[in-house]
Amino acid sequence: MSVLKPRGTNSLPFRHTQVAWIKSDSKAILAIHTHMVALNPRLSVTHNGHNTWKLHISHVQLNDSGSYMCQVNTDPMRHQSGNLDVVVPPDILNENEPNTLEGGVANEGGNVQLVCQATGVPEPAVQWRRENGKDIVVRTEGREKQVVKFVEGERLVLNQVQRTDMGGYLCIASNGVPPSVSKRFDVQVNCKYFTSFALLIIFPASPQRANSLIRFCYLFILHLSHFAFDCG
């Protein structure tokens, strides 16, 4: 619950004094004395019978943020303003059920892009880290690489991935409002293995059968050269 209280009114004559509460940005009158004008069950006003009026806001929501003014019906009129800032802890968008994984798969030498979007007030900062404190290898198109402990931003781009890049990556969102949240992404790399082999071919006497055998051997070798295995 948030409570707003006017101050500095000790010298006012309170016998016939009333206080109006106004939401400054919308100019909406919320309450006069202890009578509620706004049809909002989360708002209420209390008065101690002397010099203190309090505006109570229960179950505070984001749209309650803004400036509030208490206006005293003296001559001349007096008023005092206060600001309510509502903060929201970070949350990661499109988060799957617990213990499920998201990530990317690429062939060795390919690229992987991970995206993690977060909401909150103030706007959260997003940081990427690897599980178990491993380093993140950031490679440029020129194959220059930089080894870092973390990367900031919603997108993590892994260029020319190697089998050492496989594993879990954590997206961590924080904005100073506890708790921070994280999401795990799994990166898999398909590694190519080229195996040397020898074929003993005994050509049949028939030219037609020999041509069929040669065609089969060519397709077999072509298939092996493009075969990829999971590095794990």
Key terms:
single chain, 232 residues, mainly beta, Immunoglobulin-like, 6-stranded mixed beta sheet, 5-stranded antiparallel beta sheet, rod-shaped, Ig-like_fold, Ig-like domain-containing protein, signal, disulfide bond
- Roughly how much helix do the residues carry, as a percent range? under 10%
Query: From the structure provided, what is the oligomeric state, counting identical versus distinct chains?
Result: single chain
Low-confidence stretches: 97-101
Number of domains: 2
Q: Shape, please?
A: rod-shaped
The CATH topology of the largest domain is: Immunoglobulin-like
Number of helical stretches of at least 4 residues: 1
Straight-line N-to-C gap: 52 Å
Bin the strand percentage: 35-45%
Secondary structure tally: strands: 20
The CATH architecture of the largest domain: Sandwich
User: What does the average pLDDT come to?
Assistant: 81
Domain Ig-like: 90-182
GO cellular component, one term: neuron projection
Protein name: Ig-like domain-containing protein
InterPro entries: Ig-like_dom, Ig-like_dom_sf, Ig-like_fold, Ig_sub, Ig_sub2, Ig_V-set, Neural/epithelial_adhesion
Word description of this protein:
There is one protein chain. The protein is mainly beta. The protein is built from 1 helix and 20 strands. The strands form 6 sheets. Strands 10, 13, 16, 18, 19 and 20 form a 6-stranded mixed β-sheet that branches. The chain has a 5-stranded antiparallel β-sheet with strand order 4-3-2-7-8, with no helix packed on it. A 3-stranded antiparallel β-sheet has the order 1-6-5, with no helix packed on it. Strand 5 (43-47) and strand 6 form a beta hairpin. It is rod-shaped and about 115 Å long.
